[in-house]
Amino acid sequence: MLKQVSVWAVAGMIATVTLTGCDSGDAGKTSGVRAIEDEFNPRGQILALSCASCHGTDGKSVGIMPGFYGKSQVYLENALKQFKNGERYSTVMERHAKGYTDEEITLIAEYFGWACQQTTN
Amino acid sequence: MNQNISRRGFNKLVLTGIAGSTLGAFGMATPLFANQKHVVVIGGGFGGASAAKYIRKLDPSIAVTLIEPDSTFYTCPFSNWVMGGLKAMKDIAQTFDVLKNRYNVDVIHDTAVEIDAVNHSVTLMGGKVLNYDRLIVSPGIDFKYDALEGYSREAAETVMPHAYQAGPQTELITRQLQELRDGDNVLICPPGNPFRCPPGPYERASLIAHYLKEHKPNSKVIILDDKEKFSKQGLFMKGWERLYGGMIEWRSASMGGKVLGVDTKAMTVETEFGPEKGGLINIIPPQVAGKIARDAGLVDSSGWCPVNPITFESSIHPGIHVIGDACIAGTMPKSGFAASSQGKVTAAGIIRLMQGKVPAPPSLVNTCYSLVAPGYAVSVAAVYKLTSDGIVSIKGAGGLTPMDADEDQLAEEATYARGWYKNIAQDIWG
User: Measured between CB atoms, does B3 come within 8 Å of chain A?
Assistant: First the structure.
């Protein structure tokens, strides 16, 4: 279902949908709805680099923090918004997620979601 | 679809690419092409190593040389855990093998002794002169030993360690703690603001108390502070009361905490309320930016380095970026996490500048876990952005572990503290 729907359109209404990442099915292909240009969005990059300090380079965690390498843009955007809204339990992630606008969360999800797109296409 | 377009952010280093042809094929130092951009980084700690790795990761066409005196870097984060007997020195030891071998950073174990900001060169103690297109200075802190009468570098190295640069100092204070006579007190004397790792002395007090509780139950920790309040104060004090009873006593500057001098023979510190004797005396002196930053004229009258908040380029010398504890980064604390965050922002900014593009506005983060006891940790977090007031933390975000956090949550934070260390070490040196 999701693959036919724009990420932008569903972003606000998928709070109850749980996607575990590319390997769960169609999530990866949905991230193709927004064309990735020759270069990544530099704002997305700057925002996203912070995440690696706790979650590992590119989201490849070697500690107990969840890794998110290869997760889809939809999954990441959804998770971050749930943290931000307090809908998802966390110790520190809510405090972090509240520091980003919804647009910035989309940029972060897009940046890391790229890896998912690569693995599923 | 654009899925086949290579995006550097996720590329593994492609050794057959442009970079591979110039770098590291035989593990040799980097022979630079005439047109290849070259960044030199001074300091292999949280800031410098992050910047070096991320420049190479995000744009392998840029050559990076990292100058770091030591082949093993011991991290200040988690060094308090060593004092408390919870970690060994090897657990806080980081090396540069991955930066060298995987990211093809040219790591030179030497000390930078001179920066020529006009001719864009750095001279090393060994005599080598390196030219740079851009220089990143991440020297950490130095101590103002002469701020306290009777204290000196020699006193720190033999009798009253600061243990605020990890390594031999960590080993010295840990040994002194183990040799402490049961019933003798530990004095911890933190400086006024600003200083490296604001919650550090209080985590240290916690973990030393943890050790004393098990091994020297008649001893206690007295904190003689040069401040009226301190980082995570409410959370620490609540934890101390719950876990250590009266074993940790904190005296603010105005309540006799202000230290005027030390007597290394008598093993006392002089306060406004008289001398205080200790079996172990930990003096954390006031601090300034590392020597090379001061020698190169990168500091202002505060002793720290003013920078452009977008690229961390020095406000004094163009072409030189200063990151980490040495720089003035708005309301960001001087922490390893902050230094790494600044290192990555600077890496991205330098790449944009070298590509003739406008750097993106900075986004920075700090998260700091403090262990109060094994299985009991508290944290503070903040997200930072650039405003007309400089780099400030975003209101409504960040903040402390809630004061009413239950035991499970505090235990969870302790587990995440361990996970954080593994991941940030991997993100920087791995």
Answer: yes
